[in-house]
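Assemble and predict.
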Amino acid sequence: MKTLILNTTNRFIIGLLLVFSVFLLIRGHNLPGGGFCGGLVAAAAFALQALAYGVPSARQLLIIDPRTIIGIGLIVAFVSGLWGNLFGLPFLTGIWEKTPLPVIGKLGTPFVFDVGVYIVVLGVVSMIVFVLADDQDENSSEGGAPWN
Amino acid sequence: MGDHLGKLLALVPLGGFIYYTTLIPSVAQGGSIRASIPWADGLGIPLSFFVDGLSLLFLLIISGIGTFIVWYAAGYLHGSRTLGKFYLYLLSFMAAMLGVVASDNLIVLFIFWELTSITSFLLIGYYHEDPASRRSALQAVLVTGAGGLAILAGFILLGFGAGTFEISGLLAIGGASIAALPEFPTILVLILLGAFTKSAQFPFHFWLPNAMAAPAPVSAFLHSATMVKAGIFLLARLHPCLSDHAMWPSIVAPVGAITMVTGVFLGLRETDLKKILAYTTLAVLGTLTMLLGIGTEMAIKACIVYLLAHALYKAALFMTAGTVDHETGTRELGDLSGLRRVMPFTAAGAIMGALSMAGIPLLIGFVSKEYFYKALLDADGPPYLWEALGVGASMVMVALAVTAGIRPYFGALKKTPKHAHEGPWTMWIGPVILGALALVMGVFPALAGDHLVSAAAAAVVADPTYHANLKLWHGWNTALMLSILTLAVGVGIYLIAARWRSAMASSYRVLAAIGPEQIYFKILDGVLVFAAWQTGVLQNGRLRNYILTVGGFAVVLLVWVLPRNRFTLDMDGMAPISILPVFVCVLIMLSAIFACFARSRFTAILLLGVVGLGVAMLFFLFSAPDLAMTQILVETLTVVLFVLAFYKLPSLREFSSRGIRARDAVLSAVFGVVMTLLVLVAFHFESNDVPISEFMARESLPTAYGRNVVNVILVDFRALDTLGEITVLAIAALGIVAMLKLRPKRNQKPTP
């Protein structure tokens, strides 16, 4: 899909979307947002890149393979739950650092858990998008949908 | 590398064995060790352990024989690519088995019990390229797994009935009050089902000989000393709790006797070294069960001694049979003879084992058989029945011991597929030491009696002062006469065994055709046919039918449930209806209806997009910005995904007849009405507790430090659910990718 408008706007929008996704992730604990929304927005950024410049370019931008990203996200979420076990508390007990950090605010294991959710959602959606878009490239190069 | 790994790993069970040995003095004094770690507190299940005489005997057998098995496997599987995996399975199995015998909590015991089933499945199916091996592994896990389910049900009933899930607690309550429980018969039958399947009692015996498809170390470990004894262990463990009811002797003893007779009878048929041993194991398991069923003090004592003797000789015999197979390339009796010349150490171990199995004086097997006969002579019941069965089975056991453990080593050396030679030391050290132990314990039975058997038997008869005084020589009594007779007749049976096999070949075939294994296959086939049928009906791949099933089922359930609860349709207390939501709702409804009649896919998708955004709008209007935002994002991505998939979808066509569409329309309407009713009813649902939503809203800031309740629920209050959900999400994504990537290319022409 080659359109000048999409290609040009894309460069600005991607950065904005990614920053916005992190913003959503961080504010999620107190205001609308959170890991799931943030992950979707981030995935949308990469989907846009895939639409504008093709899947290989989007994969390059993502650097890590979506499958690995999913794995990392699951591990982050799981490990954040284990933190409580270190203090003899049940799995997934939320533990908070009481002094707030700049920008992020108070840091706690639920936030780390949310980061895990964000990463998983980003990986899942971009993986599906990439696979679908890959297929589409194949088909369009062979002259349209085979059923029609 | 693999060899050395094995030698090193043997230190794990060896360390355990040495540790358990240090427990002997205190346990032999009647003491017991208990430990408890908080575990699933919410369910009231602590990870609790309890070691008394019975547990300790099993712990020693498992870890002691386990040490030799790990060594043995290093030689037997020398050069195997997946040796590391094998050790993983083997040591996991060992750990699970130790857990079974040391558990105090019934649920913990059940979990370890199931772990032994799973790990044994992996071990039996170790040669997974071989279909027969896979089949046997599946059979073993299905039979013992079904028994495991029964046992869980039995444990739950027992635990709630008796008021405690701790075995030590059950033992303290005592058998009389447990037998008085109204649900006792159900409890007993369920637990017996579990024990019988695990210990391969008739009619579940067929999986054990088939499990001989496993590598020799597995057969030697699982099918002689440990796993199949788990059922025996459970019967012995719960003997004080369950045997006070008349049902116990009337079920357990006959089942054991039938298994014993079945085992020796089918064993006579075999000419494969390992199969013969498998059937004699079956016979011994039957014997042990029968003794536990008889349940007198003498029977319990005999059971414990017999169990110890069997573990020693059968592990030795299985290992030597494996060595013979490994070094000659065959396990067929007809091809093997004179091996003592080339495999002296293996022969020594095997012959000691066989002599002990046959019950030759000075070996522990003799002592155990003496007590076995005494127990039978003392037993109540039909006159001479137990004695006749027990002595008869023992006679055949003598013949089978000679066949499997002595015959291959004497006579002239025959040519074998592989050039016969002695195995490495790792493979014969175990049998030789076990054989020597059988001799030491046979000559000094008090050694085993005072330190191991007394405490174990005391635990089973629930009398801490019980002392099993083991002696080699009891004078010229009836039991000794029977022993001598057994040996003489046994040798006679050995001599005619070949003729017996050919004469009985046809009747064995008939038995195989009508035996319980055929029922197993019938059930298995039935399950597969049912699965294929219901998959065809419910999972036929048409989205419309899935929705039909889900929607129809929900409607039927709700229509059935709603009128049975008093409910009021009361509009009081609801927010006043303003114009904006009405407008949005009308928009949603119109879009949905038009989507149904859309002529092109693109129109339909656009209209559905309107529906989705309309719903998001409603969320906004009713102050749920989180939901609205997520909804919009999902809608956006749906459009993106749809654009990507657009080209691949066929153009819209009318697949359904007018009648089907009318049906779908009616169902949709009914579904909508029922759901609306449900929501209205739910609004007035009264509960005595504080509604969960209020609790969450109240606790969100003070305890979870978050003002966004939705997010706090997701990542804190209900984080475990979220963890599950993102895992499912990941699996679903992998599934989608697999389906899209792995499907055959449509424009690929099939090669002619």
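The first strand of chain A starts at residue 96 and ends at 101.
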